[in-house]
Fold each of these.
Amino acid sequence: MATAQTAPANEDRPLSAAERAAWQQDLANIEFVASTYSAQVRACYERAVRGLGGEPPRGRVELVFTLSDVGMAQNVAVSDDTLGLPVLQSCLSQRVSEWRFPRPVGPLRTFRFPFAFSGSKP
């Protein structure tokens, strides 16, 4: 379904070993939560492609968001989209903003997270 980027969003300087370890733990937590809600992600995709002619499109939608101290996604926005389906963008943004993540471990709080879609029929 999705894998997060390999570098923190909006971070220009190299990370210390402790910062990198904390960031990797936060990223693993984000991936776990996203996999927990994979049915919601799939439902967003199916709703967005319903009624489209031909084969369902393949591609990805990447969201960028900031985790609050209590593990809520804030300032959720689309940073990249190869599908061009506004309904999918809106649905994914809404779902992610509702999910509860573990409290962040490290000081880096802004993440990019891609959702990839294989184009299979709903």
Note: The two ends are 15 Å apart (CA to CA).
Amino acid sequence: MGQDEEGLKPQGYLFERRKFARVDGTFVVSYIDISTAQAKTDVSQTRDISAGGILFTTDRPFAPDTVLKLKLRIPDKPDYINVKLRVAESKKRGSSSLYNTRGKFITLRDEDQEAIRRVVENSLRRRQEGG
């Protein structure tokens, strides 16, 4: 495999910009767009998660930089995690009426970030062990 123009990485190598490990995971999440007067809460599921943000399914698109208020349920945590998320992107899922919305947590408490990090690490460890 050849190298890039600077001779740093093999061609086709993608630079990883993510700060946190990410794992596929289905967790219950409710969300509300706090910038609208007709704010309505919807319930959905995550598609993947990290200690820095999530990808989840929504019933409508959200513009980049929209701030959503989330309630997230993860294993081993008896209470919901309440957090605000800044939307990075919403993309339509094929021909369905659903959207993949991804964003970055902006008000995550340290203890909640640690709980998410543990869930991600445990999931990655189980995957490496073949289970």
Note: Residues 72 and 96 are 24 Å apart (CA to CA).
Amino acid sequence: MCITWLWADVSILAHIELGNIHLNVKFVLRKMNFTFGLVVSMIVNRLRELRESKMNDSDTPELWTQEGIAKHLGVTRQTIISMEKGTYNPSLALAFKLANLFGVKIEDIFEYRGEKNES
């Protein structure tokens, strides 16, 4: 999200003489610009898909449950659940641990999706 405020104050000092009357006047011109932008970006993952595939193909499916993966990685089951839902993005270290556990590259689990003009 991008919010930009720009305040511009311009002061004009004037001395006005009207016969015997002398006035010092200060005019303040104020301009405000406001810009609001929203950048939509997110990290999506294939964690649930990969975990369920490993559970189906494994002789020891209990190792590939949310609880089994959590124990192996030293995190809580809720962390795994939150990652699968996409409400939590892991640290880089945890992302590497997950990739090593599944025998894949980080990019095979996580994908960054931002605006089209972002890289």
Note: The chain has two domains: 2-37, 42-113.
